[in-house]
Every structure is written in structure tokens, then in C-alpha cells.
């Protein structure tokens, strides 16, 4: 197994670790492929592994008996199973891969022990949980106070932040899950974004043509959580 080099690892949280802390993490990290629909956190089941994504996109979904909506997504800025950092081994939310990618798995028990043994490392991951909670709060704000057009622009920016390049392999069904609306409503808003020349949509893909235009459309419903991540973790959500 090839060694994991701290400066080259493509995950924001692992990069943010001190060299000493990363040396403690590295022996327990196993590089894995993460295929489409791969379940990383199962609803109401103990989390056995946390995962630090290095590519692809994971969706965290809240479900009831009849309904489901995406409440967050994770790319290479973060990790799955962050509830373990709060000393909770399970969650009613489900997390699965929406866009295939790769990452590093670590046993949840080892992760918890490493946090308990180092106050600085524990603070880093609690700060990450805080940034996730803020993102969720702003999703609620966007849903209650912004138009579907603005909300769609926000979600596309958030996904663009977490992926390589400008092509986002997203279906209309997934966008509907993200926004909590039916597919026809999503399709109408995609056409509006295309007419503004911010994106170009084809079957199963949305290409970001003008990111600045998307930011203009999203307005103030995008940006605050991203700035908080930068302040707390030390680098932007979007890798360069």
C-alpha cells in the first residue's frame, strides 16, 4: 500500500490536520473507490467507518415514512459520519454517493479515540460540524425566504465547490430531491438559468458556464457558510 502524503491528500479536513495529528491518522486510512449509490451512513445503524472524500459527491438525506429531502452534501471538503465527532454512533439520516468518487475510510472507533486524545484535533472536527450545521441553517433560510430560481443557483454553486471542473453529473430527479420540489418545477428553473447563460444543461449533466452569473443569481443565500468554513478550517471549500 502506497504511503499517504499529507501535502498531497485531496481532502480539506485531512489537509487541515497538524503534521503530528496526520501521522496518527495516516496508518488507519484506507483508500477506497466509492461507486454511485454506495451507502456510507445507513439510517439508524451504528456508523462503523467514517469517510474522507477525495472526489465525487455524497448526499445526506433526511427521510420520513413517505418523504425524503437532501439536507446536505459532502465532497472533498469534508467527511461522512461526522456525528461520531459528537459521540453519537448513529443518526436517522442516510448518506450515499450521488456522484461516484473515492476517499479514505477509517474505523469510527479509531477516529473517536484520536479526537479524544488530542484537543486541537477535536476542535478542528467540531468546527467542521459547526460549519455543517450553519450550511443546514442557511438551507432552511433559503427555502423560506428565497425563490426556487435563487435556491437552484445556490445548490449548483455548492456542488460546483465540491467537484473538479465545470461539469456536474446531475439528474433532474436529484435536483428535485435537493430542492424538495417535483421534477417539472426543476426543469423550468434550469431553462431559466440556461436563458441567463449561467449553465448549459444536457441529459444527466449541467455545465457551469458562468460561475459569477450563478453567484449573482443566488445573491445573499450563498456564501456565508462557505466563508465560515474558510475561517474555521483554513482554506476555501472549493479546491484549486
Spatial shape: globular
How many independent structural domains?
Answer: 2
What's the number of helices? 9
Largest sheet: 6 strands, antiparallel
Mean pLDDT: 93
Helix content: 40-55%
Commentary on this structure:
- This protein is an alpha+beta fold.
- It folds into two domains: 6-119, Sandwich (Jelly Rolls), CATH 2.60.120; 143-228, Orthogonal Bundle (Arc Repressor Mutant, subunit A).
- The protein is 42% helix and 23% strand.
- It is built from nine helices and nine strands.
- It has helices spanning 12-16, 19-25, 108-116, 119-145, 148-161, 172-179, 183-195, 211-218, 224-233, and strands spanning 30-34, 39-41, 49-63, 68-74, 79-80, 94-107, 167-168, 199-202, 205-208.
- The strands form two sheets. Strands 1, 2, 3, 4, 5 and 6 form a six-stranded antiparallel β-sheet that branches. Strands 7-9-8 form a three-stranded antiparallel β-sheet.
- The mean pLDDT is 93.
Describe, in short, the structure shown:
Helices cover 42% and strands 23% of the residues.
List the helices and strands and how they pair.
Blueprint: H1 12-16, H2 19-25, E1 30-34, E2 39-41, E3 49-63, E4 68-74, E5 79-80, E6 94-107, H3 108-116, H4 119-145, H5 148-161, E7 167-168, H6 172-179, H7 183-195, E8 199-202, E9 205-208, H8 211-218, H9 224-233
Antiparallel strand pairs: 1-6, 2-6, 3-4, 3-5, 3-6, 7-9, 8-9
Helix pairs in contact: 4-9, 5-7, 5-8, 6-7
Amino acid at each position: 500500500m502506497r504511503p499517504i502524503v499529507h501535502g498531497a491528500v485531496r481532502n480539506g479536513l485531512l489537509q487541515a490536520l497538524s503534521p503530528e495529528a496526520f501521522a496518527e491518522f495516516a496508518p488507519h486510512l484506507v483508500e477506497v473507490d466509492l461507486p454511485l449509490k454506495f451507502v456510507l451512513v445507513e439510517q439508524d445503524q451504528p456508523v462503523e467507518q467514517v469517510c474522507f472524500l477525495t472526489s465525487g459527491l455524497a448526499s445526506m438525506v433526511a427521510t420520513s415514512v413517505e418523504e425524503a429531502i437532501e439536507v446536505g452534501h459532502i465532497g472533498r471538503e469534508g467527511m461522512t459520519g461526522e456525528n461520531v465527532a459528537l459521540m453519537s454512533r448513529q443518526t436517522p439520516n442516510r448518506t450515499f454517493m450521488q456522484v461516484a468518487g473515492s476517499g479514505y475510510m477509517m474505523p469510527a472507533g479509531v477516529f473517536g479515540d484520536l479526537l479524544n486524545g488530542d484537543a486541537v484535533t477535536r476542535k478542528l472536527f467540531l468546527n467542521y460540524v459547526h460549519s455543517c450545521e450553519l450550511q443546514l441553517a442557511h438551507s432552511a433560510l433559503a427555502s423560506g425566504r428565497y425563490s426556487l430560481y435563487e435556491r437552484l443557483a445556490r445548490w449548483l454553486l455548492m456542488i460546483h465547490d465540491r467537484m473538479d471542473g465545470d461539469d456536474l453529473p446531475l439528474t433532474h430527479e436529484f435536483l428535485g430531491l435537493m430542492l424538495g420540489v417535483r421534477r417539472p418545477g426543476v426543469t423550468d428553473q434550469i431553462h431559466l438559468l440556461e436563458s441567463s447563460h449561467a449553465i448549459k444543461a444536457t441529459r444527466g449533466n449541467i455545465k457551469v458556464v458562468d460561475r459569477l452569473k450563478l453567484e449573482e443569481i443566488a445573491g445573499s443565500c450563498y456564501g456565508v457558510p462557505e466563508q465560515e468554513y474558510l475561517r474555521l478550517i483554513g482554506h476555501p471549500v472549493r479546491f484549486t
